[in-house]
Amino acid sequence: MSERHVQCSTCGVLRPESESHNVPTLDAASGHYVDGYYCSEHAGPALAGTRAHVAALDLEDDARDDMTPLLTLDALVRARGLASEAIDPPATGDGMERVRNEALALLDLLVHTRLPIVEPSALCSGCYRTVPASQVRVIPWFNDSAGDFVTTFRCGDCCASSLADTRARLDAGGAREVGQLAEFFQRHGVTILEHRRGDPPEVVRPLLARTLELVAGGQLRLQIGETVPLKDVLSSPQPEPAPAPEPAPAGPSLWGRIRRAFGRE
Ligand SMILES: [Zn+2]
Ligand SMILES: [Zn+2]
């Protein structure tokens, strides 16, 4: 299997992981620092941006929560294997100011050091390259043997052309394909009301076309794990009790560590 490929957050180009860089990047929505992936050309500007942001954090202003980004950055680089013991001479200052100085010194090490990309991989079934799971695009794809639209993974390179195939299938299809695609989105938690209430295909088809455009444009991100419609959960019998769990392995799982690094635990 070929080397895993990583998509640059700045230019969108996929390159082998060995040519990619993990630069802690501020997630504006959460205010947390998270892994950010860049090509060699764009890693430098990304690192400079992170450094400037950390240097400008106002740790004195109680009205602003500038500690959270700093603490999540500190936790992230430690989780990726960079420790403050690597800083020589040690950072100066007290309290949060010292944490900031440590973070700046660790960021300076990143000019010559690569942070690992630790998340699981997902396989693009268009080109058979693997990409980090967070970068894989989940799309509907018509599977001839199944005779239905199925959940498919595509990398950033393959997503647009595969969605164009799905769109062509929708445009050329009849009532059956329209209904199947609407049910696909329903399984992913996207309800198209006009389909659910039984409107004719000519009403539902343009709504599906618009939904495909949202997937293509990235405004609608389908999750890797299929969601199950609530009514199916409610109408299904209670599952058997789960078997006793395996003895816990020593230390947190990889996924647990990732979640923790992202501040989700
Ligand atoms: Zn780039
Ligand atoms: Zn691909």
List the helices and strands and how they pair.
Blueprint lengths: L4 E3 L6 E3 L3 E3 L2 E3 L4 E3 L2 E3 H17 L10 H13 L15 H15 L11 E3 L6 E3 L4 E7 L4 E7 L4 H14 L2 H13 L5 H4 L4 H17 L12 H6 L18 H8 L4
Antiparallel strand pairs: 1-2, 3-6, 4-5, 7-8, 9-10
Helix pairs in contact: 1-3, 2-3, 4-7, 5-7
Structural summary, described in words:
Residues 238-250 have a biased composition (Pro residues). Residues 232-254 are annotated as: Disordered. The chain is α+β, with helices and mostly antiparallel strands. The protein folds into 2 domains: 5-109, no CATH class; 121-235, no CATH class. It is 40% helix and 14% strand. It has 9 helices and 10 strands. The strands form 5 sheets. Strands 1-2 form a two-stranded antiparallel ribbon. A two-stranded antiparallel ribbon has the order 3-6. It has a two-stranded antiparallel sheet with strand order 4-5. β9 and β10 (148-154) form a beta hairpin. α4 runs antiparallel to α7 (201-217). The protein is elongated and about 70 Å long. The chain starts with a strand and ends with a helix. The relative contact order is 0.10. It binds zinc ion (2 copies). Residues 124, 126-127, 129, 154-155, 157-158 line the site of one zinc ion (ZN).
What keywords describe this structure?
binds zinc ion, single chain, alpha+beta, 2 domains, two-stranded antiparallel ribbon, 265 residues
**How many β-strands, per DSSP?**
10
CA-based shape: elongated
Biggest sheet, in brief?
2 strands, antiparallel
Tell me the strand percentage band: 5-15%
Q: How many DSSP helices?
A: 9
Low-pLDDT residue intervals, each spanning 5 or more residues:
227-231, 236-252
How much is the radius of gyration in Å?
23 Å
Mean pLDDT across all amino acids? 87
- Structural class by sheet pairing and helices: alpha+beta
Distance between the first and last residues' Cα: 33 Å
Ligands: zinc ion
Range of helix content: 40-55%
Name the assembly state. Answer: single chain
Total number of distinct structural domains: 2
Pattern of helices and strands: EEEEEEHHHEEEEHHHHHH
